[in-house]
């Protein structure tokens, strides 16, 4: 079935076409004047009877709703999900049975700490929430781009969020975790250590929502048609690979383009470059529940992929932008409690708390109990309830609203035993009512160490620098010290490097009994996806005198591989090519920066292009790209421009008349058309995303 039932449903809710009639009031009365209030004479007071004025201003006054208490800033898209094959072996969920059935989805990506208007590229967790509009009702997989969480029990969520959010006295900092209260909490709450390792890694500054993983985090439960359960962890893997920004670049992006990730998602979908993710599952038979050296119910732990492989079960494509941000992306209401037959909960205390919190939060945020009638939230499966009335009731229900009834013919009837209804997994539980964390949750450091051991040198370097940055912003020295003590339990070398950077003494080496294990699946170096350069943004720096033939040919070769190429010149309009023809410029240098691109190309030209070498903005562009490890290509006289940065430390492999590559810098001094060898080498450099082992440049 390929018809998109959600799309058909949305169609019914689209507002009247403004092109088909005049401006009206909310009551449909035509309006012929909306610029002046109704007054007594030209200079007199406004009249109460000006219903158009009152309605217009009143509606405006009420336009805002409370933003989400966390994950306030986000961007969303519609799409579809298709399973690869039937998953009947372990779940009866209808949307996971038939590869020919497409289930519509809406996905919202988000940051956590900052308000609605904060920047995209801050160091933070990213939300990755998916609403599947299945034939059996809505299923929400409300995950993050990191597979673990800060705390183990949801009763601590308000404490954690109060510590993470801006400080209460001055509401500083916005969209950042580098402040005293967060680290105070972290240093006193060692269960956060594993997640803090992820947060200090480059996973916290994704290049794109299209290039990050998603995780359901908790251990959930699949239930098959016979009622048999299997533990399951969900993974989204982006087809484009997992790629991140560099911290310095992320900070500059926050100023240059605070909408960097949101714009990237929007533009890719508009350009038909649809983001795609594979859904994978780690399955654990119930009888293996206690075969791990951690507790499956503890959301601060992963199941290493080397221990339980991720099995791909389907893919998701995001192919439509919303029509209206507020109506759809802002009003979408996710809830971990939205499950369908075949998917159930476990006793993970974090998940149990979430199952309360999400419904509760929508009541205040969306103003009443009828938010599931908002188009983006409506299931495509028909909803027949006995719920009535309440704010913003938009349905006209007929008949009785209680059960059992005879006056309404007994309708709606209860679902029969045909297997369609949700029936809770009949897990046997017994015990005393207690407030006590399970002993099996109390190893806080082994997996933090596993993460650290799994990182490459450059990833470890970035983690150390992130800790130094964050703790360097903490005023309370005892909080810095206590955090270093915590880090010493993870890895002594990590702790010493951080201590040295933030000027605190190292604690005595403590007993550290972690097995020296690593999980290669955790390193970004092993997550390059399909290795293509699709959708990478490549800046080609040009000026008058450029070899337009060479430029057009390089542009064509890169575009053919799905890259997005933009010609950037000191001014907008056109540059005059060496052949006397004009070449259209996409952006003027003053409006862009290297941080907004993935790679830079400097084409050559017999006369004018070297003029770029004396353009400080152009040279800053190239220098920044180099500093941030980005691929740089240069052809003909473009190589000469690059070489002006050699005294600052930029490295170019020497060689004339052939292609040379040095840590992502690809050069060819040959004039004329770019060779296939050049295109291949430059493409490989772009596919590798970043080149970390460059020496620092002096600037
Ligand atoms: Fe949460 C929003 C993800 C723990 C309470 N959470 C929210 C969103 C995501 C997550 C992606 C944004 C959804 C959207 O785009 O609208 N949250 C997580 C993950 C968690 C987690 C992966 C741990 C595994 N959350 C968590 C706990 C609680 C909450 C423990 C409370 C006890 N989360 C909320 C909330 C939010 C929310 C207050 C704010 C807005 C909303 O729900 O709709 O209820």
Automatic annotation (TrEMBL):
MF term (GO), any: heme binding
InterPro entries, alphabetized: Catalase, Catalase_AS, Catalase_clade2, Catalase_clade2_helical, Catalase_core, Catalase_haem_BS, Catalase_immune_responsive, Catalase_large_C
Binding residue positions for heme: 68, 108, 157, 354, 358, 365
Cross-link 3'-histidyl-3-tyrosine (His-Tyr): residue positions: 335-358
SMART domains in UniProt: Catalase
Region (Disordered) residue spans: 1-36
Active-site residues from the entry: 71, 144
Protein's GO biological process: hydrogen peroxide catabolic process; response to oxidative stress
SUPFAM superfamilies with a match to the protein in the record: Class I glutamine amidotransferase-like, Heme-dependent catalase-like
Origin: domain of life: Bacteria
Entry EC number(s): 1.11.1.6
CDD domains: catalase_clade_2, GATase1_catalase
Signal peptide feature range: none
Cofactor: heme
Similarity comment text for this entry: Belongs to the catalase family. HPII subfamily.
Function: Decomposes hydrogen peroxide into water and oxygen; serves to protect cells from the toxic effects of hydrogen peroxide.
Name assigned to this protein: Catalase
